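User: For my dataset I need records formatted as: sequence, then C-alpha cells, nothing else. Please produce one.
Assistant:
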Amino acid sequence: MTTIFEASVTTPLARRYMTQLAKHWSHRFAVESDAVSARIPFSGTSCCIMQASEDRLGIVVEAEDAETSEQLTGVVADHLNRFAFKDPLTITWSRRP
C-alpha cells in the first residue's frame, strides 16, 4: 500500500531550492520540472513531488511502504538543507491517512 508524507516549508527561496534539487537529481533520475513544480521518480513505486510559490515549498513523498517513505523524507530534507545551509529550513512531515 502506498504511503504518502507531505510537508509545507515557508521560505522566500522555494523556487530556487526546488530547482536546485531537481537539477541535482536529474543526472540520476528522469526528473520532470518547470518553474513552479518538479517530480523526481526515485523508482517505479516512489517519487517526490514539489510545488513552489513565492514563499512556500510544498513537498510530497510517495513510496510503496512506510519504511521507504520515511527514508525518502530524510533524504529529501537532508538535500534541501544542504542547499539552504545559510538559513536551514524547518521541514515538518505529516503522513496522509
